[in-house]
Amino acid sequence: MRDFDTAFSEYKSMTEARLEELLPEDGSELEVYKAMRYSLLSGGKRVRAALCLASCEACGGRAGEALDAACALEMVHTYSLIHDDLPCMDDDDMRRGRPSCHKAFGEATALLAGDALLTFAFRTLSGLPNAGECVKLLSEASGFGGMIGGQELDLLFEEQGASSEELDSMHALKTGALIRAAAALGAACAKADEVRKKALEEYALAVGLAFQITDDVLDAVSTDEELGKPTGSDERGGKTTYFSLCGEGQSLERAKALTEKALAAYKTAFGDEGFLPSLALNLLKRTN
Prior knowledge:
The protein is mainly α. The chain has 15 helices and 2 strands. It has a two-stranded antiparallel ribbon with strand order 1-2. Helix 3 (47-58) runs antiparallel to helix 4.
C-alpha cells in the first residue's frame, strides 16, 4: 500500500495534469481565460480533489473514474476563492503566495473568471457516465443550500456576531458542503452502496468542520509567509471565529475531537487503514 505522502502527491499530480488538459495554456487569448488559469493552476493543496479520488478508491473504484469530478471540485473551489478575495467580500490582496486574481487582472475580469470557472466545472462533469447525479451533488453543495448560503451567513455574522452553534451552521455550508461533495462525488463515481456513502458523508462532515476550526486558528497565529495569504484578517475585520470565541487551546481540542469522530465514522464501513484516515490526521496537524 502507498504511504500517505506518495498517494497525496499522485492525486495532486493527476488532478493538475488533467486541469492542464481541460484548460491548456494555448486555449484562448482572452484575458478572462488567462485569469482562470492564473488562479486555478496556482499551486493549491488540492485537498478536495484528493478526497474525491481517495473516496472513489475506498469504495472499490479507480481514481481515474472520478478525475473529472475532482477537477470540477477544484474549479468550484477556485471560483469561490476568487470571489472571496474581491473588495466586496473579504478584500484580500494575496492568495497562495501571490497577488489575488483581482489584483493581477482587475476586479471585472476576476469576477468573470470566477463565473467562468463555475460554469466550466459543470461542463467538465457533463462527460461522466453518471453526469446527472454528479451535477446534482455539486450544484447543491455550491448553491444557496451550500457554499453560497454559507457565504451570506458569513457576511451577516460580520455585522452582528455569532455564537459557536451559528458558526457551526455557517461553516457546514460555506466550507463543509464542498468537502462533503468531494466524498460524495468519489463514492458516486465508484457506484458505492448506501452504507459506504453514509460513512463517507459523516467522515466528511466532521473533517470539514475540523478543517475550518484549524483555519481560524492559523489565521490568528501564523505568518503571511506560512499561509501564502494575509493573516490576521479575521481580527482586523471584526469577524467572529472559533479562535475569537474559544481561544487557541479549546479550538484545537474541538478540532481533535471532530477528527476522532471522522475516523470513527470511516471505520464503520472501511476499517482503520487507508488514505482518508491519514488525511484527516494530516489536516488536523497542518501549518498552512
